[in-house]
Amino acid sequence: MFSFSLTCLSSFFISLGQAKEFTLALAGKNGKKKVGITMEFSLGYGKSLVRFEMPPGVDCTEIAYRAERQEDEAALIQQALKQPIGSMPLQTLAAGKRSAVILISDASRLSPSHKFLPLLLDELREGGLSLSQIQVVVALGMHRKQTERELKELVGEAVYDSVQVMNHSALPADCVSLGTTALGTPVEIFRPVAESELRIATGNIEPHGLAGVSGGVKALMPGVSSQRSIQHNHSFSMKWKTHPGDPENPIRKDMEEALQFLPIHFLFNTVVNHRQEILGAAAGDIKEAHRILADQAKKNFLVPIHRKFEAVIASAGGYPKDMQLYQAVKSLQNASKVVKPGGKILLIAECKEMFGNGLFQYWVETVQNPSRITQMMKEEFVLGAHKVTHIEEVLRQHEVYFYSEIPESTIELLGFKPVADLQGCIDQLVQNGSVAVMPYAALTFPVYNE
After folding, report:
1. Whole-angstrom Cα distance, residue 390 to residue 192?
2. Residue 67: what pLDDT?
3. Annotated active-site positions, please?
4. Distance from CA of residue 404 to its chain's centroid?
5. Contacts of 230 (CB under 8 A, 6+ apart)
6. Is 15's pLDDT higher than 80?
């Protein structure tokens, strides 16, 4: 009887790391030998990779989501459309309608709109709608609008040339006021969406820090809502802490109450990996279909861990999860879940678009004391600036090193330590003891089981 002990074993098998030299330790009557391995890692950084080596003998563990890729994505889409959950088929819903709108996610999300939109359009056409009667609206929430090039990439050139594709506007003048939820959130929806006879929501499902999980009603609220609506709903994050993977929480309930004022008639959601490869799909009722697929996402992306580490090296996973700091903060939060109090975090995120939100940048660059920001947010919630409180929560317990395209002075204003020499930083971090590597920190939600 013997067992194998291999440092960074999981990395070795999933091709993120390649062993340059290694030995296998055999454990028998005389116990285990020390393993010596130099691992070479390649982690996502924007649309490229960064590489580093892990020195021999380091107590190293990889923490990553696990999901099996499905071979026939088109079949998954077609099956979901032909067997909708709690709803009539889309083409049946389209019969007799004079207009339809499809809500899609922007480029900061992994939703593979270009893969499923052609099939949704086919369903609508079979139901009697012409292409001139169909609009595609990018549900921006408070994200920046998409350029014409980005719109084409999101939907595919054929779809872009066939139907009207537009950005949502959160300006009050461009929205219709429909009512108020029990928690006081104004339901104000982008006018073209509110005025359409048939509304279809799409998107991708993964654990989410605010709503528990993404997808479902989020395409409507906050997706195509007014700034006032979004800010009021998001302010509840200062009152309630949701659990990633759990959709049953008051913040999502508030979002879903908007459906009483303006229903979504049909949902199409996916679960994808970091390459936008479809792992699962569901269609039908906005709540029922969403919850079924959310269960799959929970199994894919919630990762149990049984120990914490002195340091973690975390990549957001590359584009689009690290296109801006606004998104990359989510990876930082996930990485913080695997580090001991006082431990160190190295965040790897390109952030070519810098902050990704003007108010976020303004507060970082003007408010002198980070703790004062947290107090100000308690007094009045400011959408965008709330990301500063997320960073402050991490910095209270951990030192954060940041490898990025963001200028060093700005990184220092964030409270992080800028990293110019990635390998040198890692060589220093591993001297502190155990280290975890998170290659897809944006999609990996650690759950600590003591």
Report:
1. 34
2. 83
3. 143, 208
4. 19
5. 141, 142, 170, 221, 222, 383
6. no
Dump pLDDT digits (tens) for 18-30: 333 322 222 222 2
**What is the Cα–Cα distance from 200 to 220, expressed in whole angstroms?**
10
Contact 429, 313 (CB under 8 A): yes
Q: How far apart are CA 293 and CA 271, in angstroms?
A: 7
Residue 3 buriedness (CB in 10 A; 0-12 / 13-18 / 19+): exposed
Instruction: Assign 449 a pLDDT band (cuts: 50, 70, 90).
Output: confident
Give the pLDDT band (50/70/90) at residue 369. confident
Residue reference for tokens 């990293």 = 419
Q: Write out pLDDT tens, residues 257-269.
A: 999 999 999 999 9
pLDDT per position as a tens digit, 22-74: 222 222 222 222 345 778 899 999 999 999 999 888 999 999 998 888 789 99
Contact indicator for 101, 134 with CB cutoff of 8 Å = yes
Average pLDDT in the chain: 90
Radius of gyration for the alpha carbons in the chain, expressed in angstroms and rounded: 23
Q: Is the peptide bond before 172 cis (omega within 30 degrees of 0)?
A: no
